[in-house]
Amino acid sequence: MNAVLTGIKNEIFKIFSKKKFALLFLLSIFITLSVVSANLAADKRLGGPILNYSTIPVTVLDFLTSAFLPLFILMLTSDLFSGEFSDNSIVLSLVRPITRSKLYISKIIAMGVGILILLFGTFVLSELASLMGGNINSCLIKLPSNFTAYVSAFVPMFLIAVITAFAAQFTKNGSLIVVIMVLSFIIISAASIIFPEIKPFVPTTYLTWHKNFYSNLNISKIVNELLYMLGYGIIFMFTGSYLFYRRDI
Amino acid sequence: MDKILEVKSLRKIYKNGRGINDISFDIYKGEIVGLLGPNGSGKTTIMKSITGLVRPNAGTVKICGKDLSDNFEEAIKNVGCLIETPSVLGNMSCYDNLKYISRYYTDMDDSRIDEVLQITGLYPYKNDKVKTFSLGMKQRLAIATAIYQKPKLVILDEPSNGLDIEGTKELRKIVSHLAKEFMISFLISSHQVHEIEMLCDKILIIQNGNIIDFCNVKNVKETGLSLEDYFIEKLSSKPGGS
Fold it and tell me: A98 vs B104: CB contact, 8 Å cut-off?
């Protein structure tokens, strides 16, 4: 357990030292400020805001989770695996008192912590921005559902990290992994439009799982989709961990 | 004397048919063993198998009596290594690289970081980003990470690669000092026979993935042959030798 905790601490330290992570955080600040500025400008010139201020947090979340956050998760995760294999820095961790399975788990959990911190930071920032509209009551009413949406957005984003880590076991080229993952996403999404019957079985369907928490809660749908994600997570986690364990350096 | 490394019937064959076969040898406390062999003879594969970087097809590796495959964490605690290119984190400072590995060794305090930086001559560059370092400086940092935990066995694969003449001499001094003062054992591979001759107590000659000789440097010198001539003679006396 101590080795896993040390591994997590080290991998978080590594993620935070990457420019990509800082860039993603700056991007989420930029998106939030852009949405608020556009709303304030519309409020002043058109006589009313484009968006209800209390919905700014979920608008920012939708925008982030539609492309930016998944893309950055792909890049950061491939850096932690393929990137380290290609520049040989993985050896620095592999010859330490931590087994490969524990190191793999540490890396995945560290990615999870990174995603949580990003989502939480964006949530706080967007909530503060929504208060700029002046209607504190409506913001406070929406606060619990907004918070639930941000927490639930973690699950599909974390699944992306788990699947990317699995894919990263096949090559040392980090950029190639990002390209393969983006292409796979496009192909799978297109296939699920052409053949709607496969939609429940492909992981891309559940990337917008957090939207289930915006309006009336459909518990059976939420649980059903969560179980699908959990299933995919377990399969990719264990297969990825096994491939990492077997891999020769 | 205490047995630090015990390698028994080690076998690793890659998909291309090359690799190592039936490798067995022991290293005792404070011994410096040199690994000599032509390119592609299997020196790095032996070192990678001992550190768990490749999975052998057969055989056992015991470090301080602990089996590497059954008790990896306990066994690897006693090993420091530098294999092929220096493995360092380029976007971090020299200090942060050592801080990174130090978290795995709870029995060491942070003053050890400064100590190894002093030993390897990197102390003035403590806060510099590693990506700005020359190959020689990265090599020094990799040596610092290899000796940080005061290991009982240090494995160095071509350690003088990228080091200048002064750096190579300094490295020899560090190795001799650690072996004599702290009784640390070393397994060192090098293409420079002269370097091995000056540094090592024993040599292990590898050809085509097999051990063809394991001898004392002192005994070789007593035959009147230079280590270089002895090495060439051994290689050519085996079938398939050069």
Answer: yes
